[in-house]
Amino acid sequence: PVIISTLLTPEQADAYALNVRIAEITQKLTTDDVLPKGRPRSPSPPPIYDKYGKRTNTRVARYKSALEDERHKLIGKALRTVPGFKPPPNYVRPLKIQHKLYIPVRDYPGVNFIGLVLGPRGNQLKKMQAESGAKIQIRGKGSVKDGKEDTRSSNANEDLHCLITADTDEQIEIAISLLDQIIATAASTPEYQNTFKRDQLRELAVLNGTLRETSNDTCSNCGMPDHRRAECPENNTITNSIICRVCGNPGHIARDCKERTANNRQTNFNTESNHYDDEYQRLLNELDKPASERSAAAETKSPSVPDSPTAQPPLPPAPPGSVQPPPSLPPGSLPPLPPPPATAQPPLPPAPP
């Protein structure tokens, strides 16, 4: 151990600790001594092979990748906080900084974290990426629909997580804070009280064109505005479930509707009564006429109408000795059979005396 003889400020102590840790990691990576010593081994993940059949997630490769990620973060912090700091000679700054934020789907299996992170049509994810400047991707188990394979990355066997890629650590931290806020709200708030999800559903309804403003609607249960029947705090009543067919408001029937004025009722009554009076007066006039006039009027009102449009007028009587043509038969019918010939009956014997 190194003994520090002079007093250091907190900034100097942090800078010294950063330099020591960076030098330690650099030495391990240079000598390929990346495996921990004296620690029990954790369960190994399922093996992953490349296209040449070589395993890519060996124990050495996993520890080496973890040390490289730690060194990238420490060097980035030292460049911002330590004046005059220079990275190690063999250090190659990565083009992008990556961070994995795991989503607690096992602790909260009934919460749709993916839908909350993506938002309606992916607008929530785009908004977080624009605000933080980092690229956010959902990877791991459950990020791809059933029946499809995730060929874009080798993280398909890992737990569900958000892969954050950015140029600086500040962008990573901003993205982490935004994602943590969504995850914490979804995990601690019931679904029916989650205002964040309610806003997303409203935005989706606006995008689909199915939004119904409830400001002018009244509850069919209590008659109060600003909420619907399903959100009514009062209990359901039979009176409030009755809908008037005249005005459409609940709580009364059409007979008790105030919008049904007395003028309308009187007009309808007068119209019906006048119709009945005219019919009765016409009947009295018919009864006062003589029987001959009534029969003549009936004949003029109801002229003789043939039974059918195909009825034929009666034929004139045939002259004596002429042969009458057979009657016309409808198509598809057979002529009637002739009557059987009359047979002579033998005379009856005389009655005995």
Automatic annotation (TrEMBL):
Necessary for the splicing of pre-mRNA. Has a role in the recognition of the branch site (5'-UACUAAC-3'), the pyrimidine tract and the 3'-splice site at the 3'-end of introns. One of its GO terms (cellular component) is commitment complex. Coiled coil: none annotated. Residues 311-353 have a biased composition (Pro residues). Its main location: nucleus. InterPro entries: BBP-like, KH_1_KHDC4/BBP-like, KH_dom, KH_dom_type_1_sf, SF1-HH, SF1-HH_sf, Znf_CCHC, Znf_CCHC_sf. Pfam families: KH-I_KHDC4-BBP, SF1-HH, zf-CCHC. This is Branchpoint-bridging protein. SMART domains: KH, ZnF_C2HC. It is found in: Nucleus. Residues 33-52, 290-353 are annotated as: Disordered. Keywords: Metal-binding, mRNA processing, mRNA splicing, Nucleus, RNA-binding, Spliceosome, Zinc, Zinc-finger. GO terms for molecular function: mRNA binding; pre-mRNA branch point binding; zinc ion binding. Belongs to the BBP/SF1 family. Residues 244-259 form the CCHC-type domain. One of its GO terms (biological process) is mRNA splicing, via spliceosome. SUPFAM superfamilies: Eukaryotic type KH-domain (KH-domain type I) (SSF54791), Retrovirus zinc finger-like domains (SSF57756). It comes from Tortispora caseinolytica NRRL Y-17796.
